Fold this sequence. Notes:
The chain has one domain (2-158). It contains two helices and ten strands. The protein has helices spanning 2-18, 85-100; strands at 20-21, 24-25, 36-38, 41-52, 55-62, 74-80, 107-113, 116-126, 133-147, 153-158. Strands 3-4-5-6-10-9-8-7 form an eight-stranded antiparallel beta sheet, covered by helices on one side.
Amino acid sequence: MKIIYWRILVLFITTISCGQKNNKLTVTDHLNVGSVSFDNVKYDLSWSSHPSENYYKQEYLADKDSIESFKKMILLEVLTGSTQLKEVVDSKVAELKKMKETDPMVNYELFEKDGEMMVDFLISGKIADGNAMDLIERNVYRYKSFKDIKGKEGVLCLV
């Protein structure tokens, strides 16, 4: 639930700082990806962030979805530099272990094949009174090392 609130807060702050154009949020495509197609569905860039020199994050939603209400999202995260794939994945696993201390629904599996790694995990969220769950979220994070055409290295996370 904290993740959803955080995304809504970031979206609100981004809306204020970037302004609006024709009632649509102006979003910067830092990765020059454009739209993404997956499973015969087109996803358009809905939110992006470039919080540090070597970190980029972009979220993609289908036409009928909004940041407030969606069933599927594609997320691209890119970390450039000398960071190793295993370091990034270990960091995600450590985050999930920490979350499990307060969220008993947190569960994950780690897979590795052909130099790529994948973390398949569940998290949950509770309503404000803390007595009932209002969200169970499944995520599959696929991590891959890359080298771009300019020779810049990094790790891509495709969600």
